[in-house]
Amino acid sequence: MPNANFLLGHPWRWYGLALVVVALDVATKVWAVDRFMQGPALQIIPGLLQFTYAENYGAAFSFLADAGGWQRWLLGVIALGFSVVVCIWLWRLPAGKRWESCALALILGGALGNLWDRILLGYVRDFISVYYGNWHFPVFNVADMGISIGAVMLIIEMLFFVEKGREKAKNNAEV
């Protein structure tokens, strides 16, 4: 029987969180395809939030969507390479860097969730639509939320916690 500390210790728990994001992303995309691909959108908050169905053949905000198909493989290679970098980054982080590890795990899960679609289908399935009047934010999915939340967490880390970590390391070195 595997040691529980090995499975739940750093960095395995963060890879587990990334897999949870992938599983939620894939499950919600399957649900959205079944529910909204042929049917009408579902108003969650009228005038603000609805579930619908969209296919994104490009990158964020449909960048390169009309490129003719080659972008599928380029974006897939970029996502795969990025995922490898994040896996290594997570592996090398000290166990105490939980905020940064959680952020990276969310980003990794989101990247892998969208990579799954891109490799299998050639496009990414989106279904969450935020809008107000004539303004529409690009339709997105759970993977995109993981990437966005993780990125905001990394920005918060850089703005508010990196300097504190440096000061603490400096004070420990002086002692």
Q: How many runs of DSSP E, i.e. beta strands? A: 4
Spatial order of strands in the largest sheet: 1-2-3-4
What structural class should be given to the helix and strand makeup? alpha+beta
The Cα radius of gyration reads 19 Å
Helix content: 55-70%
Domain unit count: 1
Shape: globular
Major sheet: 4 strands, antiparallel
> How much β-strand is present in the residues?
5-15%
Secondary-structure element pattern, one letter each: HHEEHHEEH
Distance between the termini: 43 Å
Parts with pLDDT < 50 across at least 5 consecutive residues: none
Number of helical stretches of at least 4 residues: 5
Mean pLDDT across every amino acid position: 84
Write the layout of secondary structure elements.
Elements: H1 4-8, H2 12-36, E1 42-45, E2 49-56, H3 70-92, H4 98-121, E3 124-132, E4 135-136, H5 142-174
Antiparallel strand pairs: 1-2, 2-3, 3-4
Helix pairs in contact: 2-4, 3-4, 4-5
Concise account of the structure shown:
This protein is α+β, with helices and mostly antiparallel strands and 175 residues long. The chain contains five helices and four strands.
Report on this structure.
It catalyses: Release of signal peptides from bacterial membrane prolipoproteins. Hydrolyzes -Xaa-Yaa-Zaa-|-(S,diacylglyceryl)Cys-, in which Xaa is hydrophobic (preferably Leu), and Yaa (Ala or Ser) and Zaa (Gly or Ala) have small, neutral side chains. InterPro entries: Peptidase_A8. The active site is at 126, 144. There is one protein chain. The protein is built from 5 helices and 4 strands, in the order ααββααββα. The chain has helices spanning 4-8, 12-36, 70-92, 98-121, 142-174, and strands spanning 42-45, 49-56, 124-132, 135-136. The protein is globular and about 55 Å long. α2 (12-36) crosses α4, α3 runs antiparallel to α4 (98-121) and α4 packs antiparallel against α5 (142-174). The protein has one domain (4-174).
